[in-house]
Design goal:
Length: about 350
Amino acid sequence: MTEHETRQDTGQDAARETDADAVRGPGRDAGPGTRQGDGDGTGDGTGDGAQVSTGKETTGAPEAAIPELVIISGMSGAGRSTAAKCLEDLGWFVVDNLPPALIPTMVELGARSQGNVARIAVVVDVRGRRFFDNLRESLADLDTRGVTRRIVFLESSEEALVRRFESVRRPHPLQGDGRIVDGIAAERELLRELRGDADLVIDTSSLNVHELRAKMDARFAGDEEPELRATVMSFGFKYGLPVDADLVVDMRFLPNPHWVPELRPFTGRHEEVAAYVLNQPGAKEFLDRYAELLRLIAAGYRREGKRYVTIAVGCTGGKHRSVAMSEKLAARLAAEGVETVVVHRDMGRE
């Protein structure tokens, strides 16, 4: 990894893999087309005593769909969190640092979700000394239930791991009172058997975060190109730039419908205002060229593993020109298969 990228990526790895204990689900719901909205919600469901189907029919009850399972493990600092985030962006339900004994329970809960949790990725580490006893028991349990599982093992050289831990100034989770190299050696020995059982081993010694994501995509994204999801946000410059914008474009080169008395009360979502804006010199040419530019940028984002992009379209007050152009731009993106959400941040604030 490059020094800059290593500090960013492995800093998160060492911090999150040392003390994280969070459950994460897919960032957004997938689905084609353009949706209106200005926020999102989350929810969860749990159940006790869930039963996982073994493939035999049960009279009077629908058969539970067994989720696909990937177990992510490996050396601390080798990129487990990056690999987990990649699967999360591909639509997997990801659980960080789940105790191995709870993996069958997680699969049971997924089977109870009626297909809403079809793919589960679990990140496990070696901080618990009974790691392998519990993991072996859990894997044997899953095998008897007919669960399709794969093990992804991330490793790295001692030199690379020492450099990464020193860059974030955190101890190795197994070093105790010794040195970082002592913790690395203890972890490598503890993980030796699991590495031999792994379905996929990735050496990240010389990989940066983008190259690691590309390897995960190649194995788990299938034949389809990774999906890009876009938020097109209109805004008014007088209210300030959106802090979460990846791209910002200015519509103030077009005449302002605010100065047309019969259009002033309306917004860019009204047909009369949209027609006025799009019929101005340069408006349609801008829409065509900017849409073409976004196709080029989107291809690069996919190659770099970026899954979400926010495109901010501004005018003076965020009511007319930016709203009309945002709607048209979002329609172009949706027509090309990009899942697109339209948000009008400042419409109605005047």
